[in-house]
Design brief:
This protein is mainly α. Helices cover about 70% and strands about 0% of the residues. This is C4-dicarboxylate ABC transporter.
């Protein structure tokens, strides 16, 4: 919690170095390491070793290793995760049990819509609010995991509040959003429709369950008031302080909103903080270790790929080249390389041929929306593994058919957009 407070202080303009927060997170990971699940310890060690190896190789090739970046790592994302944990103090209405949760086909649709709608504004926190509400004994079913992950990541196709859009527009700043949304918003609807169809037609089996057994998220006022309030607060705060990223706004707003709700309900904020410090936060060791290790791996891969340099032998960037770029990025996500690394690399090697930025943005957003639910080392899948004990490689296997079908639809959308833009 101290590390999160340091990040929040820096966001508010106080003279606090992010290095202290990074050191705090690494120190917490070391303290919590003995209590981590064996599987998570092995995976974190592998990520650290591969990342360190990539850094060593890139340094041997002449690249400089930024020790400060290694220390800071994913401190912004981790701070958001800690901040979102405050919402657990007020996100479970008292007196409710499993009988109050909707079931069946309508529950699938309502859960998809809820996580997509709120996820498009408040990002990863929406998954945790809904996931915590659905989790039984701290875990989620295969079908619940699929719905939450796909419904959330589909927002990357179009949401201006998503990290995917920020990264895409940083590389393709001249993209025309109105033209982009003509194809990206239908892709988001198709992604959710495909998920609903796949779950609707599956039968019960050793690992699968019929759609009638699905337990989803309620869409009555008691179920949506908290994410709705947070979404409104995020939108208002982003308008008042546009220099702050959505990630930063959530980090600042979530604890404040939670403590205000506790106080308004005549519950002690101090007691709530004690409950959080002694309960939820020590349980975040798995998430903490995985995200820190993934940060080392991401930096190592980025440094290694940058040290190789080079350009592509292309004379232009039309529908064919865009489709191949998308497919290459998604395939790399299966190898554990986050789309943000692929976007940065593709942007640098494609810049000399001056691609159409709207078409390029569609490629980047689509690779993020389809690649992250499938990539075993993506942020959302690592968060699920750490928070709900759902193995990230099992999530990858569950989403392989989704990746294939959505990739076909994305390629069609790329050709449609290229035709609308008049790109050869």
């Amino acid at each position: 919690m101290t590390a999160m407070a340091l990040v929040a202080a820096e966001l508010l303009g106080l003279p606090v170095s992010r290095n202290w927060a990074g050191a705090g997170y690494w120190g917490a990971a070391l303290l919590l390491w003995p209590g981590l699940a064996r599987r998570n310890r092995i995976q974190a060690l592998l990520l650290l070793l591969v990342g360190a190896g990539c850094l060593a190789l890139s340094h041997w090739q002449g690249a400089e290793v930024d020790v400060e970046r290694l220390l800071v790592g994913n401190s912004s994302l981790l701070s958001m995760l800690v901040a979102v944990s405050f919402l657990g103090l007020v996100s479970r209405p008292g007196g409710e049990d499993d009988a109050s949760l909707p079931r069946g086909r309508r529950a699938v649709a309502s859960t998809l819509g809820a996580v997509h709608l709120f996820g498009s504004v408040i990002n990863l926190s929406s998954v945790f609010i809904i996931g915590d509400r659905l989790a039984r004994r701290g875990s989620l079913s295969r079908e619940q995991s699929i719905v939450l992950i796909r419904g959330f990541t589909a927002a990357a196709f179009w949401s201006p509040f998503f990290a995917a859009m920020a990264v895409a527009l940083s590389v393709a700043p001249d993209a025309r959003l109105s033209m982009l949304w003509l194809v990206s918003m239908p892709l988001a609807l198709l992604a959710m429709g495909l998920t609903f169809w796949q779950l609707y037609r599956q039968k019960g089996g050793e690992e699968t369950a019929p759609v009638g057994d699905f337990v989803g998220y309620p869409l009555h006022l008691g179920g949506v008031w908290l994410p709705g309030l947070l979404a409104a607060g995020v939108l208002l705060s982003h308008q008042l302080w546009p220099s702050l990223s959505i990630l930063s706004v959530i980090t600042l707003l979530s604890p404040l909103l939670s403590l205000l709700v506790l106080a308004a309900g005549r519950r002690s904020p101090v007691a709530g903080l004690g409950q959080l410090v002694n309960g939820r936060l020590p349980q975040m060791g798995n998430e903490l270790a995985l995200f820190l290790a993934a940060g080392v791996l991401a930096y190592g891969l980025e440094s290694l790929l940058s040290s190789w340099g080079g350009t592509l032998p292309l004379g232009g960037f039309g529908a064919t080249e865009a489709s191949l770029t998308y497919l290459a990025t998604v395939l790399l996500s299966l190898l554990g390389i986050h789309p943000i690394i692929c976007i940065a690399l593709a942007g640098s090697v494609l810049a000399p041929i001056e691609p159409n930025h709207t078409l390029l943005a569609l490629v980047f957003l689509s690779s993020w929306a389809v690649g992250t639910p499938t990539g075993p080392l993506s942020g959302i899948n690592l968060a699920f593994q750490g928070r709900y004990g759902v193995d990230s490689f099992r999530i990858m296997r569950w989403n392989l058919s989704y990746l294939g079908l959505m990739s076909a639809l994305v390629v069609v959308a790329i050709w449609i957009l290229a035709a609308l833009l008049g790109v050869d």
